[in-house]
What we know:
By secondary structure, the protein is an alpha/beta fold. Among the domains are: about 5-235, Dimethylsulfoxide Reductase, domain 2 (3-Layer(aba) Sandwich), CATH 3.40.228.10; about 345-395 and about 640-813, Barwin-like endoglucanases (Beta Barrel), CATH 2.40.40. The protein is built from 22 helices and 31 strands. The longest helix is centred in the middle third of the chain and has 19 residues, at about 440-455. The relative contact order is 0.14. The mean pLDDT is about 95. Molybdenum atom binds near residues 235, 236 and 239. This is Formate dehydrogenase (Quinone-dependent) catalytic subunit. Belongs to the prokaryotic molybdopterin-containing oxidoreductase family. It is found in: Periplasm. One of its GO terms (biological process) is anaerobic respiration.
Amino acid sequence: MTNAWTDIKNTDLVVVMGGNAAEAHPxxxxxxxxxxxxxxxxxxxxxxxxxxTASVSDxxxxxxxxxxxxxxxxxxxxxxxxxxxxxxxxxxxTNASFIVKDGFAYQDGLFSGYNEEKRDYDRTSWxxxxxxxxxxxxxxxxxxxxxxxNLLKEHVSVYTPEMVERICGTPKExxxxxxxxxxxxxxxxxxxxxxxxxxxxxxxxxxxxxxAMAMLxxxxxNIGMRGGGMNALRGHSNIQGLTDLGLMxxxxxxxxxxxxxxxxxxxxxxxxxxxxxxxxxxxxYWQNYRKFMVSFQKAMWGDSATAENDWNYHYLPKLDVxxxxxxxxxxxxxxxxxxxxxxxxxxxxxxxxxxxxxxxALSKLKFLITMDPLxxxxxxxxxxxxxxxxxxxxxxETEVIQLPxxxxxxxxxxxxxxxxxxxWHWAGGTPPGEAQHDxxxxxxxxxxxxxxxxxxxxxxxxxxxxxxxxxxxxxxxTAEELARExxxxxxxxxxxxxxxxxxxVPAGKQVLNFSQLKDDGSTMCGCWIYSGCFNEQxxxxxxxxxxxxxxxxxxxxxxxxxxxxRRTLYNRASADLSGKPWDPTRKIxxxxxxxxxxxxxxxxSPTAKPEEVGPFIMNQEGVSRxxxxxxxxxxxxxxxxxxxxxxxxxxxxxxxxxNPVSRVFVTDAEEFGTSAEFPYVGTSxxxxxxxxxxxxxxxxxxxxxxxxFVEISEELAKExxxxxxxxxxxxxxxxxxxxxAVVTKRIRPLVCDGKTVHVVGxxxxxxxxxxxxxxxxxxxxxxxxxxxxxxxxxxxxxxxxIEPSSGPEEASA
Length: 813
Ligand SMILES: Nc1nc2c(c(=O)[nH]1)N[C@H]1C(S)=C(S)[C@@H](COP(=O)(O)OP(=O)(O)OC[C@H]3O[C@@H](n4cnc5c(=O)[nH]c(N)nc54)[C@H](O)[C@@H]3O)O[C@H]1N2
Ligand SMILES: Nc1nc2c(c(=O)[nH]1)N[C@H]1C(S)=C(S)[C@@H](COP(=O)(O)OP(=O)(O)OC[C@H]3O[C@@H](n4cnc5c(=O)[nH]c(N)nc54)[C@H](O)[C@@H]3O)O[C@H]1N2
Ligand SMILES: [Mo]
């Protein structure tokens, strides 16, 4: 989230599109209720299904899964054509005025530079014109035909209301009502918030869905504003923490990049990272990259990391492919290239696509270790459950070792919520049986491996032997020790840059925040964006002051938000060029002639003059981007692409299948179904009563939603002779499942490009362990393909067929 859950109460308009917050985020949804009750805010829901969120909306519009880019581009087109633009914000705070190189173009669904063989773009033409002074050339009058604004205008002009209806199946009148209501938020005193989750991410063009809305929010001037922003509703209680702390295979902590093969030494790695400002006078905050990186390496390897050995840069793995995401890892397993797999707090057999392929992949391992408090389907993948898990147990030789762990309620630590708040919690119970904390298990694996290396030697033991392991009890680092390490401290006295005779941070003391980090080895820090969470003031994540002076919803004394306790990102953009709030009733920060004051931690230097520094200091431009220079693999503007399995051809280019730069593994190419064989659109989602695959172990939840079902419209039920509550078989190119049919008015047929499109809704909570009835889940059906930029699987739009059937057969043995 750019903002926070509590900030949603400040909005005028909530757009829930690509999510279902009332059911998947019921606790956070109360802030929407708050905004409606106390501000008279309106709620728009755009979803293929009439959800419980839709049931309390002011305006609901149906949409075909996987077509949100067309819809949002249609809204952008509407706003541009009708002058519904926050002009001053647009001119000063976005790259609308930047001139783009001549070679850049878009035609037949493709941008310039496409290479069909490589399934990739040469992105060199997706760039600005750079002047002789080294700065990007701009036209503040927005008249230049090749400025970003005019290129965007042309790009979105095809997304007329008629085109939106043709692609999305959203009736034109409904679309126009949505567009009109959204466009009112271009007024500086009106603000809209975007709340989204998997309905946008789990698509082969998921990243571009989000970009499309972010661009709309910039055009309306809603980023950095109270009650505005792009608010990703994160899933698991600590999934924000997962990405922050570098658990993605291509990231280190704090969104520093994992080195690649093309960066064999530290100098080469740094060459492309300390971005030079692209406009005169701008701050480009990544110029501090080296401080964060060196401090991270010092946290990893302590004294052995020195200037002479480039802080042990050679210890870091170098990626030979863009990432080792879950799809790629399972592909490698499937190809027999992986011996062992440690699966910690993850149930991929139910969570990832194409279950038959996953089972085959797990069957090729020599060993599988699971770390989980519960019995998972992944740990039991080899067990035959008749039609529910039809495997040949005898032929599987994988050795499975189950390590029972505790769960969050049985341990101390912090969870980072969607609003970037690091919230400390305390253990609420003692672990049952043989269960151990994850930290204890990981420490044991490390200590025993190190011992083996010490005794037996081995290839390249240094990164392991020299790993910094500075904990009171090496057998189990405590949560506090880890948090202090993540915050960072001075290793030798750190001198004050303003007065080099004065010690700023004495050796051994915690740094205040990342502004005190150095690139000379005098500081260490596990995760720079978290620095400040546990400094000499103590554990700031444990703070529980719930005062909210002036009722802004900021709660600055409650826990700690990264970065530096800032609650609204880009908050400089909440004020105009002179530093006055666009809307005085929504003040966040304000320039008082000498410094920035207000209700939040400013995201520029507190004394930086308002007209001098742009509000987007993490961008080289100093402003935000309506056009990205080669950052997005599939285009600098979002463009409509169909899912890999779609009921109609891409109207921009009928020959195009899916996202043209999404990775497709060879074995999956023939696994995509066509609409002739599979006429219906499958989509998958969660229910309030269950949390994925673990609450089915709990009898109360199991009783609330006992049995796997699919949802279809009355029209489809009639057409297929399917009875309410009767058994159906649903199948795709990759598998077949059986379910009870829920026939509902909440899903309606759509008409896309002249064709009637039926949606089959498939909730995801069932498997073959736990207290609920056995079931299958949508991932027996979903395709093994993901987003072009980040490889999130395309779970929300695929093709299926459906027919009445008999119930499933249990295992005979
Ligand atoms: N009760 C409960 N709450 C949960 C979870 C749970 O398992 N149970 N899981 C948590 C996790 S990890 C996550 S990630 C979040 C997920 O939170 P959400 O994304 O809100 O949850 P989903 O149910 O997957 O819903 C997505 C919604 O998007 C709609 N949709 C599908 N395709 C499209 C599309 O192409 N466009 C649009 N506009 N909408 C589409 C679906 O119909 C559905 O209503 O929920 C979290 N909260
Ligand atoms: N078709 C389809 N597929 C989907 C989705 C969809 O919408 N449609 N949603 C996707 C999404 S967003 C998600 S997040 C995934 C969810 O997929 P998973 O993350 O695999 O699902 P969970 O059941 O939440 O699994 C987490 C496991 O962690 C265990 N656990 C809990 N606490 C601890 C702990 O402290 N330590 C350890 N070691 N283990 C612990 C639980 O017992 C559980 O078995 O599913 C994905 N798959
Ligand atoms: Mo999730």
